[in-house]
Amino acid sequence: MIKFHPTEELLVKYTQGELDASLCLVIGTHIDMCPVCANTVKDIEENVAAEMLNKSSRFATAEMDNMLEQIMSSSAPQTVFREPTLKEVSLEGKQFKVPPTLGRLGSRLGPWSKVPGSVWRAPVDIEGEQNINLIYMAAGAAVPEHTHRGSEATLVLNGSFADEYDRYDDGDFIYLGDSHRHSPQTAQEDCLTLAWLDAPLQFTSGVARLLNPFSSLFFR
Amino acid sequence: MHVMPKSRVTREYMSTSPSKTQEVTTEYLGKLLADVANTRSRRAFSELFKHFAPRLQAFATRQFGNEQTAMDLVQDTMTNVWHKAHLFSPEKGSPTTWIFTIARNIRFDILRKNKHRQNDVSAEDLWPVLSEEMSDSSEDNFALDQNILMQEIGEYYNVLPDAQRIVIEQIYIQGKSQQEVSDELDIPLGTVKSRTRLALQKLKELITAHD
Ligand SMILES: [Zn+2]
What we know:
The complex is a heterodimer. By secondary structure, chain A is of the alpha+beta class.
């Protein structure tokens, strides 16, 4: 049972196409996993569409007839198929199923690299920036306490992790604004997440602060 | 908000009065899309165009503030409606919603092309609105055709004699086999078959006559 969902405000912006492609990817992947949000988005779509297309402009007749003629004599656009290119990811001898939205962008998944603390990450290259990663935490792993200059969205694809606030399981979507501090960790179970950052994270405690100049190497 | 060059203002498209436009129902727009999909009806598409193009233009002008870009969005969106009407499914939402999502995707791609040159993610990856299902999901395609068919047929249904309508309902709506219908209604299989044939023939006549 999914406990944590994107806010309605985020879902509206998602539906309007007002968010970064990379954040849309995280939210779209949550929607693949979450029938509740899939339904909400359907409602939002109906409402947004009705509102956005409710006013008509004054369209000159000649221009209209001209465009109509051009369209009806145009050749058909290329046919597109929607088959996901990535069905699952393998890591540490385990296979994880990939939801279709992420699967359709699967060719953009980069190689895995190891990060201190039994954590692995693989960047997903969206718009040439690397602010979105698959992050795999082995059982008993911890990311040092950190904060963000920007926002962070995390989607649990498989497994479970906890921070100071709560415990998160398959499908849970966590959105943290800036100045939120937290230290994610896993217990008996490992955890695969899709994580989006709009600025590099900042480690806040003890020795981990030494990592700050390099933090962008880890999660961005 | 949207300033038209003077020369264009001479004869504006105002023939549909606002009150009349508002009465255009979801079902009617769906029927027009089905006609475009099934028979490439230019008349149906013209009606769709006259309903949606000015709305898309108002939307795009608000979004871009640039008249040429706005017109490009209208043309791209309606071009997809003309060629891809078969991808519309009333199950998934209203025609207005479907056309809005096409426009939303085109807008998303236009805005991103201005910023990033290569290796762009396309909106279609995030929101597959215009993608064909792969062949292994042919059942969905079948369901879609069936839906459009049922939607059209619905209007002509009541014309059928009761005996034929009951048989058609059981087979095409409830999904029973002709043998099951024969057993349940306690009529010979041959009668079920002939009623089905006659009913479909009648429906076909009605549909083609109204096109
Ligand atoms: Zn949800």
